[in-house]
Write a structure and sequence with these properties.
Helix content is about 45%, strand content about 15%. The protein has helices at about 10-20, 30-40, 45-55, 60-70, 115-125, 140-155; strands spanning about 75-80, 85-90, 100, 110, 135-140.
């Protein structure tokens, strides 16, 4: 995967600058991971990122290391599903949101509201410092609910 600097997205340029400001090198695998995240239309598992980046199966640890480095720079958001599976997505400077995640297909969609800021303020008033929040909402998406209903209807063993 080769990318020319003049065609880099603003997110990749911002991440590049953040790594440089922290005296961290821009390695080829790091750039490949960033390109996959930047182009993704949905949050991805680390294994999906590894595969899309064209990295070897043995490079999964490299993907996790780079995801953590990007997360520390607030360039990547981690979404932890109910079963512990983690999804990752690029964080754009002008966007802060949470997700509703399907329990069946793991589709994650952004929510427009955030109650976390109010909770953070309350925690701060209680004396807590460096307060942050992680909020995800889980349910079954409409497509999966329809498939489940159709499967139940088609099963002759269903009363």
């Amino acid at each position: 995967m080769k990318i020319k600097r003049q065609t880099e997205s603003p997110w990749i340029r911002e991440a590049r600058a953040a790594f440089s400001a922290n005296n961290q090198r821009m390695t080829r695998p790091r750039l490949q991971v960033m390109c996959v995240l930047d182009a993704a239309q949905r949050p991805l598992k680390a294994e999906e990122i590894r595969r899309e980046a064209g990295l070897a199966e043995t490079d999964l640890v490299t993907v996790y290391r780079n995801l953590e480095a990007l997360r520390q720079l607030h360039m990547v958001q981690r979404i932890v599903l109910e079963d512990g599976v983690q999804l990752f997505e690029a964080v754009r400077a002008d966007r802060h949101f949470h997700h509703v995640v399907c329990r069946v297909c793991h589709k994650a969609e952004p929510l427009d509201a955030c109650a976390g800021h109010e909770l953070e303020q309350q925690a701060s008033r209680m004396g807590y410092q460096a307060v942050t929040h992680v909020i995800e909402v889980f349910g079954v998406c409409g497509d999966c609910a329809r498939r489940q209903a159709a499967a139940v209807k088609a099963d002759p063993r269903t009363p």
